[in-house]
């Protein structure tokens, strides 16, 4: 049972990591003449980091269990 769970969990986690690594290859856009004022105070970034850490913790817990 544990081997079959890991058989499916490892590729799923691998695809998630590959998707995260692809974010680094995004195209740069041309600089705008006047940048708009910031629309958030950084809470969206904090929530994104928390979500990624939650997924990592869930994946590790799933593999250890």
Task: Spell out the blueprint of helices and strands.
Layout: H1 2-22, H2 43-64
Account of the protein in words:
The protein is mostly helical and 65 residues long. 66% of the residues lie in helices and 0% in strands. It has two helices and no strands. It has helices at 2-22, 43-64. The chain is elongated, with a radius of gyration of 18 Å. The protein starts with a helix and ends with a helix. The model has no long low-confidence stretch (mean pLDDT 78). This is Arabinogalactan peptide 20.
Number of strands: 0
- For the CA atoms, what is the radius of gyration? 18 Å
- Classify the helix fraction into a percent range: 55-70%
What is the element string, with H for helices and E for strands?
HH
User: How large a portion of the residues is in β-strands, by DSSP E?
Assistant: under 5%
Q: What is the count of helical runs? A: 2
Through-space gap between termini: 11 Å
- In round numbers, the mean pLDDT is 78
Largest sheet: none
Q: Which structural category do the helix and sheet elements fall into?
A: mainly alpha
Low-pLDDT sequence parts: none
How does the overall form come out from the CA principal axes?
A: elongated
Organism: Melia azedarach (Chinaberry tree)
Protein name: Arabinogalactan peptide 20
